[in-house]
């Protein structure tokens, strides 16, 4: 057994499961009975007397082992709760090697914590069959979420990614409900229960337990077919919803069948299953889950109504559909060998998901989105001491949930984008296709991918990518100028800016993307392509213009001398959207870490008031918002920065206007929504007045079309900030009555703009009432945490209600608890608060969210250090530039 991980004994391997579920309770205790028959291969020298499987919160009634012509029953069944295992003891030594069949009878519960086999509450539209589970207020649908280690909550199994097997599934359900699984329905068998029958599904391909799925409910669907033929047939593609919502699945459906065809060509392997089902699940801990052939989604990630949805969700649905479909090959067909290589699944699916959306929607500037969103978020987490390498040791499967984070997904995908840019897209995708063909229906490692890419490119990929994947952090490249040449120095970038020499031992291979020439428009690629040592001098650099990391394809920060930053700002019209985002993002990060200054950032950003691109504005508003957040405790600086922000956005918001025109671009609509929200919150009078006028017309019922769906968040947030209690009540009521699929999320985000401690406490109490689904409790909390006026109330609420509300409500699903804490408490810039948080959790069992607490601590202390260091400089610059009263 590998000592670096806690895994099941290696001498027994599953080959096939038959999972049979019956006597499901559609109400009451929501129990169910099950039988699982597992065909195994046993190879144990010296014999054995027991078998160990994974099981969690299941009751095993009996088990039988058939070896050859002999059948033995268990004499003792014991549970190891902590390791989520069950030991089946047969009471005698069994000398046997070869094929054996294990049959286990068990019972479980259809829980309400979004893990394993669980139930989701919803309010139905239209008539509902009498058999559908319900209570006084809600109806329920049933579905599964097994990744990473929750198949064991639904049935006893060998729940590790490299223990692949085939699966037969049969479920006894009411005749008037629909049952779904990974494969199409094979047959319907009669049941002894009145009004029930048993649905039997076709056998799955060889796959990991975490990809098995099933669902039961009052479902309906919209359907399309792939244009390509697979085994002579067009594959049916369906989006399933609970009754009354299916038409909102059309946008996802249209994307889905095109992407299946596109990936089949890109990966040079046909989609391997006979169907693709997408299911909208009313309560869902993640965004979506790539179960093979039955992909599950939270409703806002798969449903879209052009009449009532904010347009930002169009982008989200398209991308999440593509990401999950990428997994059907990269993750499902070829699976990581162990959870330490989770990034192979997630990093690649993130990159190739955007790659597909770029193919379908070239006008969306997908790589600009990627740079302002994915790359910057990855930088933010990886700039902490408490970050982890992309490929991170995982001792047991229970640790893995905490690495479903911005490192695995976003740094992973950023590094893949960097490699693809270096090798060339065509060569890169050929290497990926070769990798998939070589390892299909089995498991693979990072080195297997590097080998395939090395072969396809003729380059030693491992030699320059290894550190990016296996070492923590990323570099900042500091530039110094001399006539005709530049000096470059790489060191590890830390947000706290205090890198110790022992933390700076890595020498990364850094693709320079150096462009130089008389001017930005005349620049061309320099012959020196990479920095491969700690320091180097690059000659032949034209002082008229030069720029590193063109289009931000390399995963590193650049620290230019102040004068060069100014010159690049002056040449901004010649820079790409990605270049501008990189310039601003780097200037901000260097200011926080102390490699640059906040005054340098503020002076650079001032030049962008005539900017017209949404993605560049998104970067500006995020970074200036963070600076304002850090200095919010100093009244004079806070007010001066508000004036700065107001002056910056005024020309842009006045130019973009209020009206969405037929046929205008997606990104222009996003710019309008973003600028109106930003301008109103910093007090742009005309925007505030118009927002309130529209709010009153909408809330009074006088004109329900007064607010465009994409402007709800901006207008609701403005009303909450300006009107306080009356707007709070109105938006709470909107939350309870909205029928728009994204309405609840938007209302919660808006409630976070309250301005008094009393209202903030009311918001938190509302979030922790049964009116707000568990999956959404972080949405409103994050909005409050981002609001410096009431931020302390979030921590106060957590502290005062930990034992009574927070822990009991969220601890059943540690993914949700960790996310809630990490994003709810990481915005402070005060070491005193960091000390309080650390002291509060010191004596608690924090397994499952301990890494989140480390991130919170590191982030707060880094921002506190930044505030202390730059406060004087910021005050001086604001005074010199006329912003201080």
TrEMBL record:
Looking up CDD domains in the UniProt record yields: M1_APN-Q_like
Q: Where is the Aminopeptidase N-like N-terminal domain?
A: 13-211
Q: Which residues bind Zn(2+)?
A: 323, 327, 346
- Keyword annotations for this protein? Aminopeptidase, Hydrolase, Metal-binding, Metalloprotease, Protease, Zinc
Coiled coil location: none
The protein's required cofactor(s) are namely: Zn(2+)
How is the cofactor bound here?
A: Binds 1 zinc ion per subunit.
Give GO terms for biological process: peptide catabolic process; proteolysis
Q: What class of enzyme is it?
A: hydrolase
Q: Which residues catalyse the reaction?
A: 324
> Which molecular function term from Gene Ontology is one that the record holds?
peptide binding
An annotated GO cellular component of this protein is:
cytoplasm
Q: What is its EC number?
A: 3.4.11.-
Domain named ERAP1-like C-terminal is located at: 545-861
Q: Name one Pfam family in it.
A: Peptidase_M1_N
Residues with site note (Transition state stabilizer): 409
Enumerate the PANTHER family for this protein.
AMINOPEPTIDASE, PROTEASE M1 ZINC METALLOPROTEASE
Family, per entry: Belongs to the peptidase M1 family.
Name-wise, this protein is: Aminopeptidase
Q: Which organism is it from?
A: Cucurbitaria berberidis CBS 394.84
């Amino acid at each position: 057994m590998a000592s670096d991980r806690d895994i099941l004994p290696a001498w027994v391997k599953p080959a096939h499961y038959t999972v049979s579920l019956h006597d499901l309770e559609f109400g009451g205790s929501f129990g169910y009975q099950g039988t699982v028959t597992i065909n195994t291969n046993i190879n144990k020298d010296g014999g054995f007397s027991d078998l160990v499987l994974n099981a969690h919160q299941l009751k095993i009634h009996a088990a039988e082992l058939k070896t050859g012509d002999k059948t033995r029953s268990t004499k003792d069944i014991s549970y190891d709760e902590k390791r989520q295992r069950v030991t089946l003891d047969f009471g005698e030594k069994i000398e046997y090697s070869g094929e054996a069949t294990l049959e286990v009878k068990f019972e479980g519960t259809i829980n309400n914590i979004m893990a394993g086999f669980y139930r989701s509450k919803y309010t139905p539209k239209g008539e509902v069959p009498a058999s559908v589970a319900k209570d006084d207020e809600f109806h329920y649908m049933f579905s599964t979420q097994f990744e990473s280690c929750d198949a064991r909550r639904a049935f006893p199994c060998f729940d590790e990614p490299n223990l692949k097997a085939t699966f037969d599934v049969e479920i006894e359900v009411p005749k008037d409900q629909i049952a779904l699984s990974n494969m199409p329905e094979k047959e319907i068998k009669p049941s002894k229960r009145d009004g029930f029958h048993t649905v039997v599904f076709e056998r799955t391909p060889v796959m990991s337990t975490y990809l098995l799925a099933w669902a039961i409910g009052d479902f309906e669907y919209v359907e399309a077919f792939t244009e390509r033929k697979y085994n002579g047939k067009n594959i049916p593609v369906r989006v399933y919803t609970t009754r009354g919502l299916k038409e909102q699945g059309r946008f996802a459906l249209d994307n889905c069948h095109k992407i299946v065809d596109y990936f089949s060509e890109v990966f040079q392997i046909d989609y391997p299953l006979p169907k693709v089902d997408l299911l909208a699940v009313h309560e869902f801990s993640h965004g979506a889950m790539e179960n093979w052939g039955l992909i599950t989604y939270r409703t806002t990630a798969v449903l879209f109504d052009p009449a009532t949805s904010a347009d930002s969700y169009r982008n989200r649905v398209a991308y999440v559909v593509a990401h999950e479909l990428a997994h059907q090959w990269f993750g499902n067909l070829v699976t990581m060998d162990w959870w330490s290589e989770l990034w192979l699944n997630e990093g690649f699916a993130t990159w190739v998901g955007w790659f597909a959306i770029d193919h379908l929607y070239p006008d969306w500037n997908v790589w600009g989105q990627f740079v302002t969103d994915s790359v910057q978020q990855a930088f933010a987490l990886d700039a902490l001491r408490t970050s982890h390498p992309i490929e991170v040791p995982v001792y047991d499967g229970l640790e893995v949930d905490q690495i479903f984070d911005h490192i695995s997904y976003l740094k992973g995908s950023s590094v893949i984008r960097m490699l693809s840019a270096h090798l060339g897209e065509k060569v890169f995708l050929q290497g990926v296709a070769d990798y998939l063909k070589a390892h299909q229906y089995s498991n693979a490692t990072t080195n297997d991918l590097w080998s395939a890419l090395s072969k396809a490119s003729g380059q030693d990929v491992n030699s320059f990518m290894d550190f990016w994947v296996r070492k923590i952090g990323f570099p900042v490249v500091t530039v110094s100028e001399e006539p005709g040449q530049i000096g470059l120095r790489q060191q590890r970038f830390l947000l706290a800016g205090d890198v110790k020499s022992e933390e700076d031992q890595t020498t990364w291979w850094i693709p320079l993307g150096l462009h130089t020439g008389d001017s930005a428009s005349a620049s061309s690629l320099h012959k020196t392509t990479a920095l491969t040592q700690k320091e180097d001098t690059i000659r032949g650099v034209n002082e008229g213009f030069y720029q590193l990391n063109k289009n931000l394809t390399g995963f590193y920060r650049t620290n230019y001398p102040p004068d060069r930053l100014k010159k690049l700002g002056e040449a901004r019209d010649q820079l790409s959207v990605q270049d501008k985002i990189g310039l601003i993002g780097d200037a901000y990060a260097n200011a926080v870490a102390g490699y640059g200054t906040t005054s340098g950032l503020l002076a650079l950003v001032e030049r962008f008031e005539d900017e017209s691109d949404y993605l560049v504005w998104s970067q500006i508003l995020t970074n200036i918002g963070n600076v304002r957040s850090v200095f919010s405790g100093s009244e004079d600086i806070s007010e001066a920065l508000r004036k700065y922000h107001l002056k910056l956005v005024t020309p842009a918001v006045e130019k973009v206007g209020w009206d969405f025109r037929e046929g205008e671009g997606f990104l222009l609509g996003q710019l309008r929504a973003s600028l109106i929200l930003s301008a109103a919150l910093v007090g742009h009078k005309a925007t505030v007045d118009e927002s309130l006028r529209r709010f009153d017309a909408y809330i009074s019922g006088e004109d329900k079309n007064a607010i465009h769906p994409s402007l709800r968040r901006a207008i609701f947030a403005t009303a909450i900030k300006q009107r306080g209690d009356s707007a709070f009540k109105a938006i709470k009521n909107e939350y309870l009555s909205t029928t728009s699929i994204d309405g609840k999320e938007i209302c919660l985000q808006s409630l976070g703009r309250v301005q008094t401690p009393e209202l903030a406490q009311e918001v938190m109490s509302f979030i922790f009432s049964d009116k707000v689904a568990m999956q959404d409790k972080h949405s409103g909390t994050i909005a409050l945490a981002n609001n410096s006026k009431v931020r302390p109330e979030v921590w106060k609420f957590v502290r005062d209600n930990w034992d009574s509300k927070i822990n009991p409500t969220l601890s059943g699903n540690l993914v949700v608890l960790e996310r809630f804490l990490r994003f709810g408490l990481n915005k402070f810039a005060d070491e005193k608060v960091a000390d309080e948080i650390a002291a509060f959790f010191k004596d608690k069992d924090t397994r499952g969210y301990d890494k989140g607490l480390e991130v919170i601590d590191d982030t707060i202390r880094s921002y506190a250090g930044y505030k202390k260091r730059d406060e004087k400089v910021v005050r001086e610059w604001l005074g010199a530039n006329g912003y201080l009263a």
